[in-house]
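Q: Predict the assembly, please.
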Amino acid sequence: MNPTFDELKLTGNLPSPSGVGLQILQLTQNEDFSAEQLAQTIQSDPALTGRLLKMSNSAQVGGVKEIATVGEAVVRLGVSAVRNVALGFSLVSSYRTGRCNNFDFNRFWSEALARAIIAQTIARETRMAQPAEAYICGLLATIGKLALATVHPQPYGEMILAQSTATDDQIATLESERFGINHREVAAAMLQDWRLPEPHREAVASVGQRSVPKVGGPPLAAKLRRILRLAFPAAQVFMAQLKDIAPPIERLHAVCREEPGLELDELYRICDIAAREWQDWGKLLGLTTQRVSALKELAEVAKQNASAPVPPAAATPAAKTVASAPTSARKSTDQSIEATFERWKNEELTRNQMTVLIADDDPITRRVLGSHLKKVGFQVIEAKDGKEALAQALEHNPHIVVTDWQMPELDGVAVCARLRDTEIGRKMYVLVLTGIDDEAHVIKAFEAGADDYVSKPINPPVLLARVTAGERLARLQDRVERDHVRMRDQLAQMAILNRKLRQTAVTDALTNLPNRRFAIKLLEEVFVNPASEDRCCVIGIDIDFFKKVNDGFGHDVGDIVLKEVSQTLARNLRASDRVCRLGGEEFVVICPGADLPSTTQIAERLRATVAAHKIQFKTFDQCVTISVGVAERVHSMRHYDDLLKAADEALYTSKHNGRNRVTVFAGA
Amino acid sequence: MSDKEYPALSTLPECLDAEVIKSLLDLGDSDPTLFKELVETFLADSPPRLEAMSLAAKAAQAEALERAAHGLKSSAGNMGARILAELCKELEQRGRTGNLEGVEPLVMKAMREFESAGAALRKIDG
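A: Predicted assembly structure:
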């Protein structure tokens, strides 16, 4: 486990599927789980059950008998589809809002959903992987961004604002600088934490790289990574405005060219299927999606845009319009975002920021109670039965819940007990209305976690007095909560500092390259299993006649030379290679997974580029050269020292033979 | 509670509770359409419930009777239809204990009570 991730986790603030979502995730990791077990798990969450059934029925062809139970849905849609929907619902509905002002949570999920469905469709149509596996990887591939935005809302928000046009790779670099960990590493660690299989984690962690460095890794990871590399730009195409369509289309074309088995037309067809599914699912989850034209047309538009950078408005006809999600869902999300922000802004909750949920199956009771509460300034939301009450409570996070006892589906006591099972539900003030004025019953309500009760028939002034008592407690609760948030922020700040300190310990201050300690740590990892077949090469590098630079031009010039050479080296490596400064004018490049011929080529490229790079500073105006030694790990090497020594020996040969050259270690 | 006077209250029939009606009318200041909406809902939602009570009484289904009577009891109580609410309470009780002797005439009485309460409410509204 990544130590910096552990620190993030300690803030207690990382996103995670809610109780049932997590249970589903864990259940389905186990290969021989039964459809029945899955159905039972889902049924324990009434909100999830409702949405799932709604989805199952909307996917039905007309005339078929309505799906009424989760069990039927599992049979009709298949286990993996149900699992996917359930996990998606769980995460999406838990993290729709947050404190990070510049992070667009709706857009984040909309794009994640697009990527998930595209990945799933690619997997299904090309049979490269199980569609469900591809779906999960697509959905969770950028979860690290959500995590960083949740744990470090303020600094992450500032970063997003300053870097609105950065690519995913640039963002990852910035994140590492600022937070000591990037979103891909966070995502991989979270997936591990959620016990997703290793190939999924590897695919998500390495998606930015052209090839997976680790040789002998599971082939599934490579397949999932290839799918993700296609799904990323395709999802960006889905999200883009027509005028910005060209860059993601170009990226999509570029990755498609790297897939020899996949024709562009076939990819277009897959995307067109996925676009339709995306809109259906978006509606279901209350996420804003847009209508996506056929990919072929979009590619044509992109071509025109590229030739005429500013297309006239008339040249872009009905290709794209924003289709809205059900307005009610979107409106309520917006409202709850605003309500949340309002809550953080002000020190003390005012009456009109206080939301009361009224759950009663009788519309007249709801209307009368609602009117009384609104009159004295409360915000009021309503639910007509226990199931709806739970769903509304978890979605809108009211401060006070007034629930009838006897209701269809779930009674008030059950609502109370279920709420107390969830983290946000524990903070609500729950008042149960009871028609049965008998002590045994009242005790049952308190046992289920109710804070208070009021007997029916309701006397409005009495009820208002009781709700007001609840209001005082909710205010206190809110204060405590705010203090917690402040504390968590401080903890998160400290975690950043810690990570930066740790990074300083493995970074060379002059060149900003990793230092000797880092190089040794990396080599130790490679050699952790001495019998392993994992390939590894190293390149030893030494600047020629560096002493003459220092003595002849001064140490300040020497420092500049070191910096320039470092940058030249770093710029000319593969993604999986790491260059470290061992000390003085000595460097080493560690290439995990690489073979000797390709590493020798890289070494030669480094030598030639350094030799051709003119360094100018004060009186210094010339090129420097490097001597290079390349060595490959072989079976007889039991320790990383053996490998370093081999490279050193080859480097010595280069020096001996006249410098500015590459020598490959010839064997002991 | 406001001291506002409502002319309709002076001619209120026995079947309605003046205090409840007044508290509903008081809410009219902040919620002008409330009373009208409540009366409409009450007039629309109650007949099916009475129908369910009648069917349950005829078929001697204690649980169904209890459920339907419970629902109507709340609405009637909220609307100040106190006699109807009392009858529903009695019927709910009978359903719960399974003592269904003579419940049919009670349901008939509830239906008549609903008619007069409904008419009286409409008059206030009007």
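The interface with chain A takes residues 1, 23-24, 27, 29-31, 34, 37-38, 41-42, 45, 70-71, 73-75, 77-79, 85 of chain B (CB under 8 Å). The radius of gyration of chain B is 15 Å.
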